[in-house]
Amino acid sequence: MSGDEDTEQCPFMANEDTVLKIKQAKNIIITEMSNPPSLDELSKKVGLNLKKLKMGFKDLYGMPVFTFLFHYKMDHAKKLLSQNGNNVNEVALQVGYSTSSHFIVAFKKKFGITPKQFTKQEIN
Hints:
By secondary structure, the chain is an all-alpha fold. The protein has helices at about 5-10, 10-30, 40-45, 50-60, 65-80, 90-95, 100-110, 115-124.
């Protein structure tokens, strides 16, 4: 048995490798949040099969890939809106929404208020 076969037999090593690939997948969707790859593309980019990516991501982060991305986008949008000078349309584009109306609906779904209501709260 060569060293490579030892690695194949050791589940810990395989898990470490899988965890690194799943973390890499998270970094890719964050970096490319305005135009994220599909799950198929993402699995190919990190070298994991689709099932392993989906199950591993949920195990590691407690939610599916695109649910994680949605929450990340909304939290990022909230930070951008908190900074002076960012308007709703600009923020919507930065987090990957082609129309501000879709962004407003998504923001309200996550936080219970519209981005405009949020920015007014931040000012007061």
